[in-house]
């Protein structure tokens, strides 16, 4: 675990004119700053354009690396990157924990996959994750606001010290804005895509009072696909979370059944843009971007319109409830998506590459086990190895950087690749230093490969974009904060980690109440 800094980073208190009673955080997953610029230019009457007209736009905001959903959102609510939060992806490896299902921990050898995905759900094919609600999916708003009960403890890694399962919130190494708000007596809520997002509860387990997490990778009733395989279905799925936020604006819990109060910190993520960027086709229409910087294709255009319309419903409800002047909206994205240029796409079967690496390692070291114990490859290559020695990590790096082969392009035609599709790779202690982590940390990857632009690691042709990497398309996301006064654009480079201390400052709370802010010296956003 990263040690806490000894000197607290303080920020001046928010003036009375800057303070808000409510902060509504919205993540449009997959959205780029360029998407926002293009959309508001071509749709001057849109809700997104109106948000720009009433706030500050940070035109050079970047996510941490890996640019995945878990580290991306945790950056926004903790103020820290993966080395500080301890979370590098939703599926990782930890050398200090025991495998799921371990019941006899004395003498057990540590080291296990840590999989905080839909695979933890009691029933991952049900949108309620196994709660057993009738009338789904229409009745999904009746889903619990405490999704920890929907996780199967037998699928969780085990802490060798206590011989008990490690829930996602217990895995997070630092506190969240939700916890700080709760400690100040404020109400909190959030809506996201898996019950595993109970990680947002933070180490205390009490951060989010009302956490609505319909399972996005569940089957759409009457079909064989999940909510991400058709963009119209994704939009329908997102509409449930919007309905939850509308109920919360009205002073109810997410279900609309119980009168509480409007949260001080609340919000949701949208998945519609992300799936529209990934799908080659949806509903007979082309996904992703048009060739030659032609902008969003028909599916992505529809998704952007949908998000804008839903944002319009949210802002209208804030105004109807007379909360528009006391609520600050923070709009950003957990991650972008790469590539935006269809001609750059090179899909590579990472399974074949890793099989080759394991085979070469065994051939060079007779009797040895496979070298790769876990790989998380989207448009980056993140590996944990069975052998952490310099010999092993260097072997893996050199092998990958010398492989060439055939992938496929946007049309599925063969397309050659070199260096395993990597621009560069860091292994061993260099991989730890890349993440600003301590070498030997039990969570840090043993190899991180920075992909060439356009490379997506996948065994088929179902995806035309991905995230997780270090390309500009992965990391350059929008960041808009509404507020009083004239619209303003800030060109100074900022990080999405700066959202967290800014939220607390807006609420009149101390940014340095966040442990990650103290560790990393994360600053409040300028202006």
Question: Can you offer a commentary on this structure?
Answer:
The protein is α/β, with parallel strands linked by helices and 527 residues long. The protein has 2 domains: 22-85 and 169-341 and 472-520, Alkaline Phosphatase, subunit A (3-Layer(aba) Sandwich), CATH 3.40.720; 346-457, no CATH class. Helices cover 27% and strands 18% of the residues. The chain has 15 helices and 25 strands. The strands form 9 sheets. A 6-stranded mixed β-sheet has the order 10-1-13-23-2-24, with helices on both faces. Strands 15-16-20-19 form a 4-stranded antiparallel β-sheet. A hairpin with a 2-residue loop joins strand 11 and strand 12 (285-286). 55% of the residues are buried. The model is unreliable at 1-17 (pLDDT under 50).
Features:
about 525 residues, alpha/beta, Alkaline Phosphatase, subunit A, 6-stranded mixed sheet, 4-stranded antiparallel sheet, 15 helices, about 25% helix, about 20% strand, disordered N terminus, Alkaline_phosphatase_core_sf
């Amino acid at each position: 675990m990263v040690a806490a800094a000894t000197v607290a980073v303080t920020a001046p208190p928010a003036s009375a004119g800057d303070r808000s009673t409510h902060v509504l955080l919205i993540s449009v997953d997959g959205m780029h700053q360029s998407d926002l610029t293009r959309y508001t230019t071509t749709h001057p009457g849109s809700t997104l354009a109106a948000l720009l007209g009433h706030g500050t736009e940070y035109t050079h905001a970047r996510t941490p690396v890996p640019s995945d959903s878990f580290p991306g959102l945790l950056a926004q609510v903790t103020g820290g990157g993966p080395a500080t939060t301890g979370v590098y992806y939703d599926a990782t490896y930890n050398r200090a924990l025991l495998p799921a299902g371990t019941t006899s921990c004395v003498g057990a050898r540590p080291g296990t996959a840590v999989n905080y995905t839909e695979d933890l759900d009691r029933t991952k094919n049900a949108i309620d994750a196994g709660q057993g609600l009738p009338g789904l999916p229409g009745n999904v708003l009746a889903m619990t606001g405490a999704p920890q009960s929907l996780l199967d403890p037998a699928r969780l890694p085990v802490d060798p010290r206590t011989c008990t399962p490690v829930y996602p919130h217990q895995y997070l190494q630092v506190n969240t804005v939700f916890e700080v708000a709760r400690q100040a007596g404020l109400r909190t809520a959030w809506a996201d895509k898996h019950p595993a997002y109970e990680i947002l509860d933070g180490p205390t387990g009490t951060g989010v009072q009302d956490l609505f997490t319909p399972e996005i990778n569940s089957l759409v009733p009457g079909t064989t696909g999940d909510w991400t395989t058709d963009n119209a279905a994704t939009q329908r799925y997102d509409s449930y979370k919007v309905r939850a936020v509308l109920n919360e604006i009205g002073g109810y819990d997410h279900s609309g059944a119980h009168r509480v109060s409007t949260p001080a910190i609340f919000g949701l993520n949208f998945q519609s843009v992300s799936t529209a960027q990934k799908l080659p086709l949806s509903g007979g229409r082309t996904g992703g971007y048009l060739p030659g910087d032609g902008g969003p294709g028909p599916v992505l255009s529809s998704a952007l319109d949908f998000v804008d319309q839903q944002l319009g419903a949210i802002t209208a409800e804030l105004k109807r409830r007379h909360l528009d002047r006391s609520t600050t909206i923070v709009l950003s994205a957990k991650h972008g998506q790469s590539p935006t240029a269809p001609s750059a796409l090179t899909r590579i079967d990472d399974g074949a590459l890793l099989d080759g690496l394991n085979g070469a390692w065994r051939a060079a070291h007779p009797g040895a086990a496979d070298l790769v114990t876990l790989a998380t490859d989207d448009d980056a290559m993140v590996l944990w190895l069975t052998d952490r020695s310099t010999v092993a990590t260097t072997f893996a790096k050199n092998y990958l950087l010398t492989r060439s082969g055939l992938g496929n392009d946007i049309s599925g035609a063969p397309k050659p690749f070199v260096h395993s599709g990597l621009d560069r790779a860091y292994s061993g202690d260099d991989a730890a230093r890349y993440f600003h982590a301590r070498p030997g940390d039990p969570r840090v990857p043993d190899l991180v490969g920075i992909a060439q632009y356009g490379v997506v690691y996948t065994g088929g042709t179902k995806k035309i974009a991905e995230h997780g990497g270090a390309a500009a398309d992965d990391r350059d996301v929008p960041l808009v904060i509404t507020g009083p006064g004239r619209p303003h654009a800030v060109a100074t480079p900022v990080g999405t980690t700066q959202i967290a201390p800014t939220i607390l400052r807006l609420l009149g709370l101390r940014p340095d109440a966040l442990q990650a802010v103290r560790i990393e010296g994360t600053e409040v956003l300028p202006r």
